[in-house]
Amino acid sequence: MNKQKFEKILNKLKKTTDSLGIKIDKKVLEAVAVFNYLGFSTTQSCEGHLDHGYISPWIQFGPAQNKTNIALERKIAKLNKQPHNNKAYKKIELLEKRLLSTLKKDLARLTNLLENFYKTRKVPYDQKLILIDLRTRFQLITQGSQFQNIFSKKEKTEKIEMYRKEFDEFVRFVFQQSSSTLT
User: Fold this and answer.
1) Residues 122 and 174 both lie in one domain
2) Residue 183: pLDDT above 80?
3) Which listed residue, 12, 32, 109, 149, has the most CB atoms within 10 A of its CB?
């Protein structure tokens, strides 16, 4: 592991804000840094909250933000603002496929890491991490977040800690698995 490189990424992310000026949540910051260090392109994240959003931490992965991909995303956004017909849908679909082709490697890497992580790990179903398709992005999140509305407030309070722990364990696993191949 190149500690200097990792610290540089972490310090940059500590200063990073979204379009509303909100910084990356502290409880997921190191996870975002690990994935960026390993070459993944992260686009959004959250540490999980009891009062809004998901009770699970999550990280969203997207295409690298280079000129080509930014241009594709702008074309898709422009087409999505226009009235839709079959021709428009086909154009959007084609552009999305081009954008998604850049994510194939990352998706395959993460899928492989999740499979290896859960080979011997026994946890409750809702605690398991999953990947969700978001059309031109994908999200790493716990299974339980997808049906969190059935939980009582007390259950949510218990589960948020369980979900955060699972997320942290996976990030440690990813880093350990990948660090042997890094210089």
Assistant:
1) yes
2) no
3) 32
Q: Are strands 58-61 and 129-133 parallel, antiparallel or unpaired?
A: unpaired
- Please tell me the predicted confidence (pLDDT) of residue 6: 92
For residues 169 and 149, give the distance between their C-alpha atoms in angstroms, rounded to a whole number.
25
Domain check: are 52 and 94 in the same one? Answer: no
Type of residue at 157: T
Pair 75, 30: CB distance under 8 Å: no
Question: Two tokens at 171?
Answer: 């990030």
Give the tens place of pLDDT for each residue, 28-44: 999 999 999 999 999 99
User: In the numeric block, which tokens belong to residue 102?
Assistant: 């850049």
pTM for this one? Answer: 0.88
Give the whole-angstrom CA distance, residue 66 versus residue 74. 12
Count of structural domains within the chain: 2
